[in-house]
Write a structure and sequence with these properties.
The structure holds 2 protein chains of 2 kinds. Chain A is of the alpha+beta class. Chain A has 3 domains: 8-187 and 254-288, no CATH class; 294-409, no CATH class; 416-475, Arc Repressor Mutant, subunit A. In chain A, 41% of the residues lie in helices and 19% in strands. Chain A has helices at 52-64, 168-184, 218-237, 285-291, 296-307, 311-318, 321-331, 336-354, 358-361, 367-378, 384-397, 402-409, 416-429, 431-438, 443-455, 462-475; strands at residues 3-12, 68-69, 72-73, 75-79, 89-93, 99-107, 116-128, 132-135, 145-148, 155-161, 196-204, 210-215, 245-250, 255-261, 271-272, 279-280. A 9-stranded mixed sheet of chain A has the order 2-6-7-10-1-11-12-13-14. Chain A has a 3-stranded antiparallel sheet with strand order 5-4-15, with no helix packed on it. In chain A, helix 5 (296-307) crosses helix 6 and helix 15 crosses helix 16. Chain B is α/β, with parallel strands linked by helices. Chain B has a domain at 9-265: Amidase signature (AS) domain (Amidase signature (AS) enzymes). Chain B contains 18 helices and 11 strands. Chain B has an 11-stranded mixed sheet with strand order 1-3-2-4-6-5-10-11-9-7-8, sandwiched between helices. Chain B is globular and about 65 Å long. Classes of the chains: A alpha+beta, B alpha/beta. At the A-B interface, loops of A face helix 12 and helix 13 of B. Bound molecules: zinc ion (ZN). Zinc ion binds at residues 18, 21, 23, 36-37, 39-40, 153 of chain A.
């Protein structure tokens, strides 16, 4: 069945101050209602003043997504009542946004070599974030809601796609690509809580579209959409009509709930914000174009050719700009293929396991540390297992150097004499297994290798152990 | 202590600086008058602070810093639509009862910098919605010339206070005539600046695209002096037009200095003249006004002619749509501006808290008066999907036509002259029951807000003891021209 998904993605921009006032945007670790002023609290008489940098960031995003940036922009009021909206309207854009008509290419199969797909971008515009409702306990048990206006007035860029996405998975891949691009531009930090929020429009062949509001995690998008497709399919199967409605995504339960149907849709009564004037932006386009750095697609191409690494590795290394930078630094000092393998396959896995970002990780393990680890490995000072162990130790503890870990954990590889000693001992203690191997039970060898590794506390290379072990047993024939 | 009932700011500043009068005594005298008054000009008084500041002024008056202050020790009343830090600001609405702004409007900062002393916050129509000061939650203000009559509105408290000597200067705000109407009814001077001259930062919005804060005073010179202070440049208001007029602070100083340096009155106004000034008198603004008003305005025009100006009767056809366009734009903007008053963060909070919708609906139901509710409902309707094009967009088109019409008229004429109000102050309760008749009273003032041009109302006579106002309209940012003409006309009274 044909599925059509369109996304409205709201991304917080990394400006120093809010969109219409000079309050700091660095509120994530602050007490509620400490980053507020007359303007972002909507006090009577206070006026908005547009943050020029936020507009530049918005233009940067639009240009990076291949959009046509417009001559002039106008801010509008979107009128509705909600306790987190201190003025009773949100300042956003309507008829004259920053840009229209962009294009984003995604690989729809993700890692498994799927084909490239083009997702059209309808428009890019700027708007302010409302405050946030806070509950003591959960939303169901709390007696009242509290409002924190620290977020009120944060600059958001809204990116709206055409309904070109065909599955929840594609939606997730698109969002990943968007996040990656925004981070490349240096205007966004996807790790901050609530930095990206998504509304999704979804329709199945033969049904009206439903809008799922306020999905606030990357994983949530795929889950919410999958749930919604199943729900709509079930309705259609039972011969029921899918009606146009707005639904809310319940993150903890992973389900969508009806908020309101068409006849109760808000009339937002958009009209131009009379406290702001239209802003001419076309004169800055060329200047901002020059500020746009190499983007993920270009970097990927360059990585495969410049470092002769596989497309998979290039893909993996360029997704996060911090990982890409880390790789380039390491690869400039030591074998670039070895670096690619150890960063894409090992380090990234360790980061995922710990749910920490490369930016966080690089405070504990520098590129110089990483080069040192790979050098010890190449020179045979440590084993692959030892190298992994050092990385883990550094990520977990922080503030330690590879050399210290090699010493304290005794990770230095051991010489062949010590290995041979261990092998002799293992052969003597496991005569049964040796006999099994001799009569052709090959798996017995794995057991013996394991025993030697145990005796050497992992400081030997398993391959080497296997070679020596086979030689020894066979020489006894 | 028997001070003159009507003091001028220019004189007060000089006399305080020279030590001829004591600021403290002046302020005490002002409060005595207010306390004796039956007019109900003020919602909130600032007595304690004002007296403290006055004592400070007396102490420092001869210091270098004080000598530079343009309004040193001058008592000023502030319309309650303008935010004052630490002083309750209600917009004459129940819904803002007890709201004390944590910040000063830009104009208040400018006044403080120049040494003015804030007497209190003046009564007005609730959220500036009215022309009689009768929609105030705090009761109507009365006209000093006849206690049974309205002072005009919405800045009625400010106008009545000046007229009765309860302040020397006052601030008003003018969305569709709210400075000029009460100036006309109370017999004082009031100026609505060009849209974009004075910062609106801190002005509680009724209709943002139309309104300006402006000076009110007993005479033209004080009006000019106050305007000069108000037009300070402000980065916090994006709609303020950064022109040479507010780039420097000597906005009207050229001719004020002419007056000041005139040495003891001998050369008063030497540099101010209207010889050759072309005045247009649009007949549409005169048709239908009361005969006494018409007569007084023509008299004024002839006096200006006697001083060397040239006048001509002209026609401005598109004006008939002005009132409808004005009310649609004003109410639409108001419906959005007033959405923030929900009792959650400040202002009225009554009864038991229930769910969000019930609670804020109840607070708004109790907190807003009838006229405010009427305008919110009409404005909400005009902005609704399906009606936006019919009402709001069409009103904006009319606005462009009117702006063009004024620009055309002002291409061939330096200023325009007309009555401010079609009649003199009416009786309390006479029109309040019939909103339409009240809206119609604004016919001569609203088109000027739609066009965004500056306009001043100055007294030009009486009808049965009630003042009549002459309205002079100028080109964008050419306040000096209308002030000049008003000044010359004022001199003919002396
Ligand atoms: Zn703020």
């Amino acid at each position: 069945m044909d599925v059509k998904i369109g996304l409205e993605c709201h991304a917080q921009l990394l400006t120093k101050s809010k969109l219409f006032c000079s309050c700091s945007t660095d509120y994530h670790d602050s007490k509620p209602n400490t980053h507020v002023c007359a303007t972002c609290l909507g006090l009577p008489g206070a006026l908005p003043v547009v943050n020029e940098r936020a507009i530049r960031y918005g233009m940067k995003v639009a240009l990076a997504l291949g959009c046509e940036v417009q001559e002039e922009i106008i801010f509008y009021r979107k009128n509705y009542y909600y306790p987190d909206l201190p003025r009773g309207f949100q300042i956003t854009q309507y008829d004259f946004p920053i840009a229209f008509n962009g294009l984003v290419r995604i690989e729809s199969g993700g890692g498994d070599g799927g084909k490239e797909r083009e997702i059209r971008i309808t428009r890019v515009h700027m708007e302010e974030d409302p405050g946030r409702l806070v509950y003591i306990g959960t939303i169901d048990t709390a007696k009242y809601s509290l409002v924190d206006y620290n977020r009120s007035g944060m600059p958001l860029v809204e990116i709206v796609t055409e309904p070109d996405l065909k599955s929840p998975k594609e939606a997730r891949i698109f969002l990943g690509k968007l996040r990656s691009t925004l981070e490349y531009l240096g205007v966004f930090d996807g790790d901050l809580e609530g930095a990206m929020r998504v509304d999704a429009n979804i329709s199945l062949e033969g049904g009206d579209r439903a809008e799922v509001k306020n999905i606030s995690s990357y994983k949530g998008v795929e889950r919410a959409l999958s749930f919604e497709i199943t729900r709509q399919k079930n309705l259609l199967r039972r011969g029921l009509k899918i009606q146009q409605e707005t639904r809310h995504y319940d993150e903890t339960r992973g389900i969508t709930l009806s908020m309101r149907t068409k006849e109760f849709e808000h009339d937002y009564r958009y009209f131009p914000e009379p406290d702001l004037v239209r802003i001419r932006i076309s004169d800055r386009i060329e200047e901002i174009k020059r500020e746009i750095p190499e983007l993920p697609d270009e970097k990927k191409k360059r990585f495969t050719s410049q470092y002769s690494i596989t497309t998979e590795h290039a893909n993996s290394l360029t997704y996060d700009i911090n990982i890409a930078d880390f790789y380039e630094e390491v690869a400039s000092k030591i074998d670039m293929k070895l670096s690619a393998t150890w960063i894409a396959d090992v380090l990234k896995g360790e980061l995922n396991y710990r749910s920490i970002s490369m930016r966080e990780a690089s405070k504990r393990i520098s590129t110089a540390d990483f080069v040192a680890i790979l050098r010890y490995l190449k020179d045979g000072v440590i084993t692959e297992r030892g190298a992994t162990e050092i990385m883990r130790e550094m990520l977990d503890r922080g503030g330690v150097k590879p050399e210290e870990i090699i010493k304290s954990k005794g990770l230095a590889s051991i010489g062949s004499e010590e290995i041979e000693g261990a092998i002799d001992k293992v052969i003597k203690e496991n005569e049964g297994a040796v006999e099994d191997y001799k009569v052709g039970k090959k798996e017995a060898l794995n057991f013996l290798v394991g025993q030697v590794m145990k005796h050497t506390r992992g400081r030997a290379e398993p391959k080497e152990v296997r070679r020596l072990l086979v030689g020894k047993i066979e020489s006894e024939f | 202590m028997g001070m003159k009932k009507k003091l001028t700011a220019i004189d007060v500043v000089e006399e305080i600086k020279s030590g001829d009068i004591s600021c403290e005594e002046l302020i005490l005298e002002i409060y005595e008058r207010i306390e004796r008054s039956e007019l109900n000009c003020f919602i909130t008084l600032n007595k304690e602070n004002a007296l403290e500041e006055a004592i400070e002024v007396d102490k420092r008056r001869s210091g270098e810093e004080c000598r530079r202050k343009k309004l040193l020790g001058v008592p000023i009343a502030i319309k309650d639509s303008i935010s004052t830090r630490g002083i309750q600001t209600t917009c004459a609405s129940k819904i803002l009862t007890g709201y004390v702004p944590p910040y000063d409007a830009t104009v208040i900062e400018a006044l403080k910098k120049e040494g003015a002393i804030i007497i209190g916050k003046t009564n007005m129509d609730e959220f500036c919605m009215g022309s009689s000061t009768e929609t105030s939650y705090y009761g109507p203000t009365r006209n000093p010339h006849d206690l049974d009559r309205v002072p005009g509105g919405s800045s009625g408290g400010s106008a009545a206070a000046i007229s009765a000597g309860e302040t020397v200067l006052a601030l008003g705000s003018d969305t569709g005539g709210s400075i000029r109407c009460p100036a006309s009814f109370c017999g004082i001077a009031g100026l609505k600046p060009t849209y974009g001259l004075v910062s609106r930062y801190g002005l509680i919005a009724y209709a943002n695209s139309l309104e300006q804060i402006g000076p009110m005073a007993s005479n033209v010179t004080d009006t000019a002096l106050l305007l000069e202070v108000l037009s300070a440049k402000d980065e916090r208001d994006s709609t303020q037009v950064k022109t040479k007029n507010n780039a420097s602070t000597n906005y009207c100083l050229s001719w004020l200095n002419g007056k000041r340096s005139g040495n003891g009155g001998e050369g008063v106004g030497v540099e101010v003249e209207v010889k050759g000034m072309k005045i247009g008198v649009p007949k549409e603004f005169i048709e239908g006004v009361s005969p006494e008003v018409e007569k007084s305005v023509w008299n004024a025009v002839h006096k200006l002619e006697d001083s060397g100006a040239i006048y001509e009767e002209i026609s401005m056809r598109d004006l008939k749509y002005a009132l409808a366009a004005y009310y649609i734009i004003a109410m639409s903007e108001a419906s959005s501006n007033l959405a923030r008053f929900d009792g959650l963060r400040y202002g009225l909070r009554t009864g038991k808290d229930e769910d969000w919708h019930t609670t804020f609906s109840r607070i708004r139901g109790e907190g807003f008066g009838e006229e405010v509710k009427r305008r919110i409902i009409l404005g909400t309707y005009a902005l609704s999907a399906g009606y936006y094009g019919t009402y709001y967009l069409k009103a904006l088109k009319v606005r462009t036509l009117i702006k063009n019409e004024f620009e055309d008229a002002l291409k061939t004429h330096d200023i325009l002259a007309m009555p401010t109000m079609p009649f003199v102050a009416f009786k309390l309760g006479e029109r309040i029951k019939d909103p339409l008749s009240l809206y119609l009273a604004d016919v001569n003032t609203v088109s000027i807000n739609l066009a965004g041009v500056p306009s001043i109302s100055v007294p030009c006579g009486f009808s049965n003891g009630l003042p009549i106002g002459l309205q002079l309209v100028g080109k964008h940012f050419e306040e000096d021209e209308i002030l000049k003409a008003a000044f010359v006309y004022e001199q003919t009274f002396l």
